[in-house]
Model the fold of this input.
Amino acid sequence: MMLTMALAALGFAHVQAGKLAVVRVFSTDEEVMLLNASSTLWSTVGPCTSKPSSMIDLILVYSKDLSSNSMASEVVMDLETTFSNNASSWVNCFAEIKNMSAMLNPEQDVYDSNGYTTNKHWVSGPNSVFKSIVDAMYTGPFKGMYDSFFLMEMDAVPIKAGWLDQFETEALEMPSQNMAVRGSQYLGDKWDLFKHMMPEYLVEHINGNAIYNLQHNWTQYLHNTFTASGSNNMMEEMAFDVAYAMITMGAMSGEAPFAAAWTEAGGTNTTYNPMSMLVGNYANTLLNTSYEFPSFIRHGSSKNLFENLPDADVTLVVAYFDMQGHLRETIPTNHPFKKIVGLTYFSQTSTTEEIPAPGGNVTLKMEQATKEPYYHLCEAASKVDTKWFALTDNYHIVKAPVSILMETMDKPVLPYVLKGSRYCGERPNCKASMEQAEDLFSIDLMYHHDKYEVLYKTADAIQFCAAWDVATQGKGWSNCSLSFGPTADDYIAWKISSPSFNVSNEFTPKDKTRYGWRAWTSLWNPAPVDDRQCSTTLYGIKEYLETLGNISKCAVDYVENSSGCIGDTTCMWRPMFESGVCMLNPKST
Ligand SMILES: *[C@@H]1O[C@H](CO)[C@@H](O)[C@H](O)[C@H]1NC(C)=O
Ligand SMILES: *[C@@H]1O[C@H](CO)[C@@H](O)[C@H](O)[C@H]1NC(C)=O
Ligand SMILES: *[C@@H]1O[C@H](CO)[C@@H](O)[C@H](O)[C@H]1NC(C)=O
Ligand SMILES: *[C@@H]1O[C@H](CO)[C@@H](O)[C@H](O)[C@H]1NC(C)=O
Ligand SMILES: *[C@@H]1O[C@H](CO)[C@@H](O)[C@H](O)[C@H]1NC(C)=O
Ligand SMILES: *[C@@H]1O[C@H](CO)[C@@H](O)[C@H](O)[C@H]1NC(C)=O
Ligand SMILES: *[C@@H]1O[C@H](CO)[C@@H](O)[C@H](O)[C@H]1NC(C)=O
Ligand SMILES: *[C@@H]1O[C@H](CO)[C@@H](O)[C@H](O)[C@H]1NC(C)=O
Ligand SMILES: *[C@@H]1O[C@H](CO)[C@@H](O)[C@H](O)[C@H]1NC(C)=O
Ligand SMILES: *[C@@H]1O[C@H](CO)[C@@H](O)[C@H](O)[C@H]1NC(C)=O
Ligand SMILES: *[C@@H]1O[C@H](CO)[C@@H](O)[C@H](O)[C@H]1NC(C)=O
Done:
């Protein structure tokens, strides 16, 4: 008695056990298979070291009707059998296994397969399933049974043993620290390109794979507000996790009607809580397989993990249009370019220099170009002695930390944007580049590729350049009968025009607007305007200024320089990969 009181007084009250649940949601056939595979995975990445003191149930939630899908019910039954026979080591960690059908009909069960650019209503499936789960906990079959639950979707993959113990620890801390929702903000950097167009609640939202404290009134309020029908039907408009962020951040900044509810629920700065070691949200960030995740569970599909191209296999060829630039300052950083060739479009004696960098010395060769600047891609192809090369110019810096991602050593990731995307629609360059490629190689292109983001295979590029010279006979760059010199779109169009080409054998294409593709280099200043007098201006003052407006001073000035970044009040530092990135502090403007 005395001891209990003493412990309680010392703040140890939270060690008492709770009633918790891990909720796994599955919908597609692929997810059913992932669920089936989880038994094997969990026997190696064990959930607990010994039976938890809390009662933790495992709840399997199928988005439709379990009895209508024989494969899904077979997998659920297998897991239930494994459980009742105590046939795998993970079984011991859970108190009970349960199932639930969210009963969506096939039209409602729209999961995002094409991205929201093509289907505005893709959110409604996951939202309805989430609503069913929380309804079940507050008013349905699981009413009053749980203090909190962890939503663990199929792409939440345990990577460290003891993850269920971590869930228990974090969940039990929540009541005493006034937490309603606890999880992870997005830790990748997919949004670099689009961040300026995004509201803060979207950038800073806690991903849905989180712990929900059902006893907290703010959790109840979020659920009620999100699911309320009326003129603002949030469930049709945005994903539940984004809506939760929007309501919470609105409440915290005093917005009616959320602010009054916030006060009533006793909301504080810990209530919506991104401090979690349980789960790390990498979503669609593309990473290499040896990336070390600090959290116990990675939210991010295994299909987004890639190999790194060995440094010895690649050269970066830099077009020096003039003597300006900061590329050299960013060479001593974490990047794969141990061989850099600078081709200058001004008088230059050839030099070779060794520059120490974290991953080994970088050899920088400078020499004067012999061809026109627009022909950079093809002159580069003739200069390199590595299997692959990449391109940039003196208006760029190395955007460390960065690596070259390959599915196999012969298959690079190929970032693209859709022809019909807003991104391409807003840029005359994008359309013109695709038109040139289609015209030269007589094919239809669906995707636009950036010249500085494609990894070129040297042997292929040499053949491509011969074909480009033939295809452009009677046309010229200087008199505007060509919009550009050889581009990445031309290169891909040339590849596609070959009858034996099969894109899935040579590339792993990824939509940049959906996946966290990190470009290898980034602008510090826009390139000078195109001074040709062509009938349409592809890159004039307007485009120059737009580009200028989007360059982040923080990213340029503090490449892998955390102390410099932290010392600048307009910037914020985000640890990432080997080091981190410096970005504009949205709160400073
Ligand atoms: C589930 O996985 C097991 C192996 O762990 C396999 O034997 C079984 O066929 C799988 N079930 C389905 C429906 O594919
Ligand atoms: C699901 O749970 C119910 C009880 O709630 C049980 O009767 C059934 O066997 C379970 N399994 C499947 C595959 O439906
Ligand atoms: C389940 O099996 C483990 C050994 O794998 C054993 O320690 C445990 O006591 C068993 N649990 C039950 C309920 O039989
Ligand atoms: C939570 O709301 C209930 C009524 O819905 C109320 O009785 C209770 O006092 C509230 N708790 C807190 C901590 O505000
Ligand atoms: C949260 O608020 C408390 C005071 O209520 C303050 O001491 C603490 O620094 C705040 N934390 C953050 C991260 O803002
Ligand atoms: C790296 O370059 C420095 C000169 O910048 C040189 O002293 C050193 O020997 C080089 N290291 C290797 C391993 O080549
Ligand atoms: C444009 O320049 C190219 C190459 O110099 C030439 O072959 C072509 O005839 C010119 N076209 C026009 C319309 O002047
Ligand atoms: C392309 O290659 C993939 C895998 O190598 C194969 O599955 C696919 O059928 C091929 N497509 C065509 C059109 O040949
Ligand atoms: C640059 O910013 C403008 C608006 O200021 C935006 O429309 C445009 O898409 C941005 N460009 C890039 C490359 O992000
Ligand atoms: C980091 O930035 C600070 C402030 O601009 C600068 O003084 C320092 O030299 C930089 N450090 C490195 C390693 O570049
Ligand atoms: C994978 O990425 C991590 C972090 O970016 C880096 O530390 C590691 O060296 C990379 N692995 C390989 C094999 O390049």
Residues 502, 504-505 surround 2-acetamido-2-deoxy-beta-D-glucopyranose (ligand 8) (CB under 6 Å). The CA atoms of residues 322 and 345 lie 7 Å apart. Residues 18-303 form a domain with the Spore Coat Polysaccharide Biosynthesis Protein SpsA; Chain A fold (CATH 3.90.550.10). The radius of gyration is 27 Å.
